[in-house]
Amino acid sequence: MQDSQSRALMVVFDIDGVVRDVAGSYRRALADTVEQFTQGQYRPTMAEIDALKAEGCWNNDWKASEELVYRFCKAQNLERPTIDYSALVDFFQSRYRGQDFSGYIQNEPLLMTRAYLEQLTQANIAWGFFSGATRGSASYVLEHRLELESPVLVAMEDAPGKPDPTGLMATVETLREGQDSNLSLTVFYVGDTVADIQTVINARSQYPNINWIGVGVLPPHAQDSPEYAQKLKEVGAIATLNNVQDLTPELMQSFDHG
Fold first, then answer.
1. What is the pLDDT of residues 93-112, one digit of tens each?
2. How far apart are CA 162 and CA 214, in angstroms?
3. Beta strands per DSSP E along the chain
4. At a CB cut-off of 8 Å and minimum separation 6, what does 211 contact?
5. Which end of the chain is flanked by fewer CB atoms within 10 Å, N or C?
6. What is the pTM of this model?
7. Contact between residue 199 and residue 164 where contact means Cβ atoms under 8 Å apart
8. Residues 30, 44 contacting (CB under 8 angstroms)
9. CA atoms 27, 127, 2, 173: torsion sign
10. What are residue 10's DSSP bridge partners?
11. How far apart are the C-alpha atoms of 32 and 29, rounded to whole Å?
């Protein structure tokens, strides 16, 4: 491990499944949407949604909903439907966000505390968020629920979707403003999906001057699934944790071999 005076540690968090439990919100809205657009013929299970997410290219839940509709129709030898994507998004959002955040979003259990983030700050570890959630949804949990003041956030509207690492790097660049650019930098990205970890792998090849470390967090619904954890490790997670707050400053330092 490098001397602490010659390097800087930084951690960027995904939000869904890391900061908040979305099994009863985003996942529920996804299932509602698929059920709606298959005229009630099919409602995906949590395991089926996980299997789709494990493919690494369905981080966007609107696109995931559309894809599951297409796959159901194909499996049933039905003609591929013409889906009004904007109508699908509107339906999804009516369930998830609702009017004035009155939808499923209001009941999401938090998986992170403000005190944990303060602990990181005290350890001189800069932190921020890169999420595929919309800015409105992400800001709601960070500013309204966690009561953070203007946290560094790159959301859906700000960057290409994962596993493209552009948004991750944009988060890092914002966090690095004012820091000593001569310090070597280790960045942890903490996520709960294959796409999150693949984002780290892609960042390593595109931005090799930074030491990138991917850490997997098991969302509550998957904590009894060895397969879920194994998949994250297979694509490159250095470890899988049951809760994001298990990633302490001491553990980060033990992972940092940059």
1. 999 999 999 999 999 999 99
2. 14
3. 7-13, 126-130, 153-154, 184-191, 211-217, 239-241
4. 184, 185, 186, 187, 256, 257, 258
5. N
6. 0.89
7. yes
8. yes
9. positive
10. 126, 187
11. 5
